[in-house]
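Input structure tokens:
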């Protein structure tokens, strides 16, 4: 996927309304779910963090969702400005409250997902 021009990771939340598929240039619409949404994160979603996180925001990719055990696994780079191996998965607590899904992770705005997935 190719993003439109963005300056910092946090810009993905407001500026990205579609992804551009690299092999054919197709524009794929994107849905945004604020933390506390009625739909839980799904594998492949992008978690987007606000600019207050290290001055630029942050992005992580959801690799697994476990509703029963209340966590989401993510793959990311430069979390807390430290190197992470590609197989280093971080777990984020997932709770439900008033039929809404919340990830307990500071500075998280929400998750982005290709429409229809």
């Amino acid at each position: 996927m190719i993003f439109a021009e963005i300056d910092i990771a946090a810009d993905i939340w407001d500026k990205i309304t579609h992804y551009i598929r690299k092999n054919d240039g197709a524009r794929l619409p994107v849905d945004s779910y604020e933390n506390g949404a009625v739909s839980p994160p799904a594998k492949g979603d992008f978690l987007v963090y606000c600019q207050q996180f290290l001055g630029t925001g942050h992005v992580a990719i959801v690799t697994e969702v476990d509703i029963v055990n209340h966590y989401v696994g993510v793959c990311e780079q430069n979390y807390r400005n430290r190197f992470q191996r590609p197989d280093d998965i971080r777990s984020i607590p997932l709770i439900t409250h008033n039929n809404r899904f919340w990830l307990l992770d500071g500075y998280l705005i929400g998750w982005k997902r290709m429409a229809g997935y």
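The first strand starts at residue 18 and ends at 20. The radius of gyration is 14 Å.
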